[in-house]
Write a structure and sequence with these properties.
alpha+beta; 6-stranded mixed beta sheet; 6 strands; 19% strand; Tfp pilus assembly protein PilX
Length: 206
């Protein structure tokens, strides 16, 4: 029998030592998770703020649309209702929330009787609010003649605007034949279901 050749110990390949795990990946992973969580929280806050702003804008737009009903009520009173004649507008009409004199206002020009409920009650106005149960919006209006005193219209004590009595005249003729008329201020307060209030105003000449 032939003897097998012996391999010298120095000729054998040593086995590679197992790699040592240092755990450096874990801290990076934790940092990345924290960054992702912060970014997600910021995104959620931004979305909430955007939705809130959009909701407020839509809510205010709805109040503005609802306020048109208050203006329509006031215009009806001045055109064909209880305040349609000049003699009727020379005195206060509490049942129609009308003042023949200029109402005291705050720095924004809103009558105090609309800003404060107690002031409205103190003024003895009794015109019923316009309430919409479907939308939860309540409207309150007041009309005040921009004059310093009640009674017959006097141009020197009132805010006036020029208005022609001839509807068929052209613009140049209207300027020549225009007559001064007192200005009436219509103010409307719209109160929403969240007790949010918005105020709207317009002036008319009669």
């Amino acid at each position: 029998m032939m003897a097998l050749p012996r391999i010298a110990p120095s000729a054998r390949r040593p086995r590679p030592a197992p790699a040592r795990q240092r755990g450096i990946v874990l801290p990076f992973t934790l940092v990345a998770l924290v960054v992702v969580l912060l970014a997600g929280a910021g995104l959620i806050r931004a979305m909430d703020a955007g939705l809130l702003q959009a909701g407020n804008l839509a809510f205010r737009r709805d109040l503005a649309n609802q306020a048109e009903r208050g203006f329509a009520k006031a215009h009806t009173l001045l055109n064909t209702g209880a305040l349609s004649t000049e003699s009727a507008r020379e005195a206060n009409s509490l049942a129609n929330n009308y003042s023949a004199t200029r109402l005291a206002s705050n720095s924004q020009g809103i009558p105090n009787v609309l800003v404060n409920d107690s002031s409205f009650t103190g003024a003895a106005f009794t015109g019923a609010d316009i309430s919409d149960s479907a939308t939860g919006v309540t409207l309150r209006w007041v009309i005040d003649r921009q004059c310093a005193a009640a009674g017959s219209y006097v141009s020197t004590s009132c805010a006036v605007a020029s208005r022609s009595t001839d509807s068929a005249a052209d613009d140049r003729y209207k300027l020549v034949n225009a007559e001064s008329q007192p200005v009436y201020r219509i103010s409307v307060r719209a109160t929403g279901p969240r007790n949010t209030q918005a105020f709207f105003q317009a002036t008319v000449v009669r």
